[in-house]
Design goal:
The protein has 238 residues and is an alpha+beta fold. It has one domain: Prim-pol fold. It contains 6 helices and 12 strands. The longest helix has 13 residues. β1 and β2 form a beta hairpin. Helices cover 28% and strands 22% of the residues. Strands 5, 6, 7, 8, 9, 11 and 12 form a 7-stranded mixed beta sheet that branches.
């Protein structure tokens, strides 16, 4: 069941959604992940100050307070050393994901991508794609590819950059499936597409370096920078 998508509100069977998500969160903890639920306001920020969670995992009783007493409907994890060098590789644009996979296959990295996605692959309510893997070498939270935002994507005049590909490593925080409810502004859930928390693979530093180098190859970078979305209406709120 780990990672199954949940409806935005209400019950699953006869259980409140918070109880069901608690079971998921406890299951996340078994493979050694440091769980920290996100706020229920659409900000995607962690529920509490989480600096201490970079070195200390919450106890099961604390998780019960978050999920049963507090009614949290989201699962987040702290990346980095606390989670055995867990790193999130995120495609913030679905077109960037498709183009990157095509480029990876063309240069002989298709098997590596398949192995990562067999371990953990999910999508988000906003159309992003997440990979999770572990590696002896990780970074903090660098942006690997970005482009100028379209006018309809800007929340204010200074909001000028659209991130296409980024990672979350040491000091990073990631919201994962089956988060739902008011975790995301549209109340839609994060969906596990393949693998699970207990199947996250470990890749070599060279594997990781190859992924990063591919993003920065001249031809790939040029194609990524050319990605432009058509103007769109803002997503409906909950």
């Amino acid at each position: 069941m780990c990672g199954a998508a949940l409806p935005a509100s209400g019950h699953v069977g006869r259980e409140p959604i918070s109880t069901t998500v608690l079971k998921e969160a406890l299951a996340v903890g078994w493979p050694g992940l440091c769980v920290l639920p996100p706020k229920e306001d659409g900000s995607k920020a962690p529920l509490v100050k989480w600096k201490e969670r970079q070195s200390k995992r919450p106890a099961a009783e604390q998780m019960r307070r978050w999920y049963v007493e507090g009614g949290s409907s989201g699962v987040g994890v702290v990346c980095g050393r606390i989670d055995r060098n867990l790193e999130l590789f995120e495609f913030d644009d679905p077109t960037a994901y498709t183009l990157f996979k095509d480029a990876a296959t063309a240069v002989g990295l298709g098997d590596l991508i398949e192995r990562i996605e067999a371990g953990y692959l999910e999508d988000t309510p906003g159309g992003s794609v997440h990979w999770l893997y572990r590696c002896e070498e990780i970074a903090i939270n660098p942006t690997l590819a970005r482009r100028p935002k379209l006018p309809d994507e800007m929340s204010d005049p200074e909001d000028k950059i659209k991130v296409l590909i980024e990672t979350r490593g040491e000091g990073g925080y990631a919201i994962l499936a089956p988060s739902g409810g008011r975790v995301y502004p549209t109340c839609k859930p994060y969906r596990l597409l393949n693998g699970g928390f207990d199947q996250i693979v470990t890749i070599t530093p060279q594997d990781r370096a190859n992924l990063w180098a591919l993003v920065r190859r001249r031809g790939v970078t040029r194609v990524l920078l050319a990605i432009v979305r058509q103007p769109r209406q803002p997503p409906p709120a909950c």
